[in-house]
Specification:
transmembrane helix; elongated; 203 residues; five-stranded mixed beta sheet; alpha/beta; transmembrane; membrane
């Protein structure tokens, strides 16, 4: 399943209710790129997020032929820096139109001053080291608790939790990490059992 990063392109004439609605829909991690103008400042103030001002977003009377590509590069640069945060761009109507033509040429502007663009992104990386360490800890806990519950119960519960998380958008990496932990735990447990069988005096 393809995941997407949200880019919100906002005109500096956005109404207060549009700004409030946008603010309520933003995720916990967000970067706001803004033109250094009074109109854009009004919108950014309503978003209640510390902005990053860039002169490239300032209105120009005679835009260069490569302005659209430079705007696109600016936005993508901030988006790629953290593919799991929302990006908000606030600028004048002409700059917004030019940016949308380059950033999302197949998408028509939405009604109102706010247009949402979805950029494909890869899945979150799986924390392999933490998963391996967690597998070792899981094996240890399962062995220690085997006198109370069967040794396979805890790994089975973690396995089920991992399978459930695989179905949750944005949590697949956690599900994969749990599955890796279970695999490591099973391998460690089998090695421990094999070792105790070969060297019974060591236990």
């Amino acid at each position: 399943m393809t995941e997407y990063q949200r880019i919100f392109v906002v005109g500096d004439r956005a109404a207060a209710d549009e700004v409030a609605h946008l603010r309520s829909s933003l995720g916990r991690s967000v970067v706001v790129l803004t033109a250094p103008t009074a109109e854009a400042k009004r919108v950014v103030t309503g978003l209640q997020v510390e902005p990053v001002a860039d002169v490239l977003l300032a209105p120009v009377r005679f835009p260069g032929v490569d302005r659209g590509h430079r705007l696109d590069e600016l936005v993508r640069q901030h988006a790629v820096a953290d593919r799991f945060r929302d990006v908000v761009v606030v600028a004048d109507a002409a700059t917004v139109t030019l940016l949308l033509r380059t950033l999302a040429p197949d998408q028509l502007p939405m009604a109102g001053a706010v247009t949402e663009v979805l950029l494909p992104r890869g899945s979150r990386p799986v924390p392999l080291l933490q998963a391996a360490i967690g597998g070792g800890v899981l094996a240890l806990v399962a062995v220690i608790g085997s006198g109370v519950v069967p040794i396979w119960v805890l790994p089975l519960l973690v396995l089920l939790a991992g399978l459930v998380l695989l179905l949750v958008p944005g949590r697949r990496h956690l599900g994969e990490a749990l599955l890796i932990s279970v695999a490591v735990a099973v391998a460690v447990s089998l090695l421990s059992i094999a070792g105790s069988s070969r060297f019974p005096g060591s236990w």
